[in-house]
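Before relying on records like the one below, remember that each one covers exactly one chain. Contacts with other chains, cofactors or solvent are not represented anywhere in the record.
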Amino acid sequence: MSTAESIESVAARVRAGELDPVALVEQALTRAERAAGLNAVVYLDAEAALDSARLVARDRRGALAGIPILVKEVIEVAGLPFRCGSTLFADRIGQRDAEVVRRAGAEGAIVIGLAHSHEFAYGCTGTSNRAGPCHNPADPSRIAGGSSSGSAAAVAAGVVSLALGTDTSGSIRLPAALCGVVGVKPARGTLPLDGVFPLSTSLDQVGVITRSVADADYAVGVLAGLGTRADAQGSSPFPTVGVVANAEALDCAPEVWQAFDAALSAVFRAGAPMFDVQLPDWGAMIDAVTDTQGPEAAAAHAELFATQASLYQPDVRDKLWAAMQIPGWRYIWSRAHAVIARDEASASLASCDAVVLPTVPIVAPGLHEDEIQIRDLLLRNTRPASLTGHAAISIPLPTGGGLPVGLQVIAADNRRAFQVARWIEQVLAAGAGPVS
């Protein structure tokens, strides 16, 4: 099996009897052990994974037949630790599979273990966890991003080609961008939240991290029960691409801007119509995310925090304390503004197939940066799509050997988001040549 082979192709070859799912799992387990220094995988379930692979080898069914996967540790898996990265839940074991895990298993996917999460998914660096920080495969002295840190780092390191994560205000897209892989937050409601430990019930979403847009498109379609994927080209020869015009979205570090600008030039040369698109007030959308997420996180942790606050990681404890100080009127305002922002963003997105912007305005900071100090900067470009619920995909950009940089594609729905992301991915892979 080639490391570049698509998960669709691998699953098809498993179903055809050409690939042994037991061998695929053994290879993934070996890769996980070799990458142990990254701390991307917090629990390997080798024996159960091999047992599951033997079962798949008997019936060879499912759209994900034989595909080894990792599951972010805030998503419940029956029989595996359900710690959410916290010492508070050190002894807790999952009692049932989250619905998205059940669906993956029903299609033949094999869970080999659990991926690192920032404690309770309440952080964007991946440095706060009972097991220690997750390291970036591109430079282990830097953060992997969070909170789906292990999912992104493991895919980037080649441990698995598909990992499940959650995204509340950028927790899939941010680490995907910093690690150089594809991260998808599908449109709100695409994938079920049943069995996911909540951070913010209004904003939480399940998504995937993969090596390619095609893999992500395929996986989301399977897990959503759709069974179809977007045509990479769509109904017209070229997609119409809007470039987000809001000044805040384009205020980036030089290395990020250089990669983003080069990508825009490639897209333009390849033939896509491009123009500026103004989205709703950026600052207001960010405030609404903060004032939604904070009170909802405080509510989810109210009982635990009242008696065991000292056991939380320091940055998570500080964020929860600050969240408890947000007045009720700000929460009510944030929920009302979310409706307005979604309608306004939908109107803007109607003018094109998708809009693009840098996923994260900086490259991965060092592991010892203060999470609370860099949090707003890291999440500045991902929070708006979390508020509006629109589909958002981060794809890696060529950087000439520099640290990973991501381009974010936001669209009115999953179909258009995947169409544009796949088209841009192909343009960049072809060196800016036209896509046929």
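The chain has a mean pLDDT of 95.
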